[in-house]
Amino acid sequence: MINQFRTSNPINLLLLFAYTFFMRIVLLVEIPDALNFEFLEPYTKFFLQIPLTSAFSPTTNVIAAGLIIFIQAIIFNIIINNHGLLPKPGYLPALLYITGASLFMPFLVLSPTLICNFLLIWMMDKLLKIGKSQNVIMIMFDIGMIIAVGTLIYFPFIVMLLMLWLSLLLYRSFSWREWVSGLVGFITIFFFLGVFYYLNDNLGMFYKIWLPLANKFPATFKINYNDYLVLVPVSVMMVLAMIQLRDNFFRSFISTRKAFQMLFFMFICAIISFYTKPNFRLYHFLLCVPPGAVLLAYYFSNASKRWFYESLFLILVLAIQYFLFV
Asked: Which of 5, 115, 171, 302 could in theory staple to 91 by disulfide, Cβ–Cβ 3.0 to 4.6 A?
């Protein structure tokens, strides 16, 4: 299967579409009685009402989520190939994106993070352009606005603001205009939001938006390890990918090295941002899928022992299906 998706054969699009819904077969076989979908944060619903949650039956919810994942995978695949992060273009990024977006049951249905991944993929594309552009002020401004829109949908997305400056540290020499422009883009969106709250005599509610940023990072975690056993094969692949990346690191283009460092920071930001939402759900970690999928695709595009990497991927797919059904 991996060998098939290493190529740019157009038939892979049909295979990816079928694979997307195969990974969701557990929900298609036994549709839940009800699935709740909260599209926006409460502070966004105050001024923007979208009658979306009631419009989706459980069946429509599952199918719509599958279609969104498929569309995101194709966009993601185009971006990774355009930036040349893999040895040769193919459909491995899309395959690994769909696989990563099928790890847990909450990943299979509509969620705010699923919508935010459109913004995260768009943001990833812009960040990868920083090292190739002479003037990045407008790029940073756009990224700041993208993060602000993501924060309106799902508050923990705000932690991606760190990526503005981490990326500049990696790609650019210091320029205060570039460091400020992204923040200005972010503030622009929330300035208009603040004006709306002020005109409706709810400025105190606007202040409460930012209170989760003062949350303490949890010192203890309550984890049911049985729920996360599916991550064992993923962890093995990630370790192998990092070993592969280390071996090729100084033989790669400088832009490729910096790109993978940037994606690593994005992966970490996606993980740690959960602390800003005390009642966060497992679907939060869907934000880790885009940067994680690039690393996995890098491993499978460079792996040489076919029997090993094909078996490893098959084990992952079977493990996902087993833990979804049980």
From this structure: 5
pTM: 0.91
Residue-level pLDDT at 80: 93
Please count the other Cβ atoms lying within 10 Å of the Cβ belonging to residue 238.
Answer: 16
CA-closest candidate to residue 218, choices 278, 155, 268: 278
Domain boundaries, the chain: 2-325
Encoded tokens for 202: 């709810």
Specify the length of the chain in residues. 326
Residues 6+ apart with CB under 8 A from 254: none
Contact 114, 281 (CB under 8 A): no
Q: Is the pLDDT of residue 231 over 90?
A: no
Instruction: Please tell me the distance from the alpha carbon of residue 104 to that of residue 287, in angstroms, as a whole number.
Output: 13
Q: How far apart are the first and last CA of the chain?
A: 25
> SS3 string of the chain?
CHHHHCCCCCHHHHHHHHHHHHCCHHHHHCCCCCCCCCCCCHHHHCCCCCCCHHHCCHHHHHHHHHHHHHHHHHHHHHHHHHCCCCCCCCCHHHHHHHHHCCCCHHHHCCCHHHHHHHHHHHHHHHHHCHHHCCCCHHHHHHHHHHHHHHHHHCHHHHHHHHHHHHHHHHHCCCCHHHHHHHHHHHHHHHHHHHHHHHHCCCHHHHHHCCHHHHCCCCCCCCCCHHHHCCHHHHHHHHHHHHHHHHHHHHHCCHHHHHHHHHHHHHHHHHHHHHHHCCCCCHHHHHHHHHHHHHHHHHHHHHCCCHHHHHHHHHHHHHHHHHHHHC
Residue 21, both tokens:
């819904």
pLDDT in tens, 182-217: 999 999 998 988 888 888 888 877 888 887 777 776
